[in-house]
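Repro:
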Amino acid sequence: MQALDKRASCFTDENRQSSRGIVYDNILTSIGQLAQLAIQSGLPLGEDEASIRRMSSVAEESTDSHDTLEAYVEDVIATWNNKLVQQTYRDRHKISKNFPGTALQHFMDKIEEIRKPDYIPDRQDVMVIKVRKRQDAQSTIHKSIERQ
């Protein structure tokens, strides 16, 4: 019964609201890393090149605020819709074992909702965040083991 109570507690309004910054960071960091991979391919980026290059620099910034997401949202959308970026996303595990963008598709499917100032993550968003955290932790463990 305690496990059920613990899982339910992650869906409180307060917890969901505090997860908003994690969603913003997840989107901007993942799209930034994806843009970096697309650039590294050396293939032509097309008409979205400026947006892709801007997003590639965002991966290193603090990206957990609505204002930051809103400042970059048009570049996020242009980058995500770029054909080379989409191909890079489909091939991400072949290109980079450590690409953390497994939640990116989920969040990009609802980017118009997420960009609203009153956005509050729903239960599914919170679950995707928790899966991402678990995957990041596993990746960190694997990196530590590989270094030994």
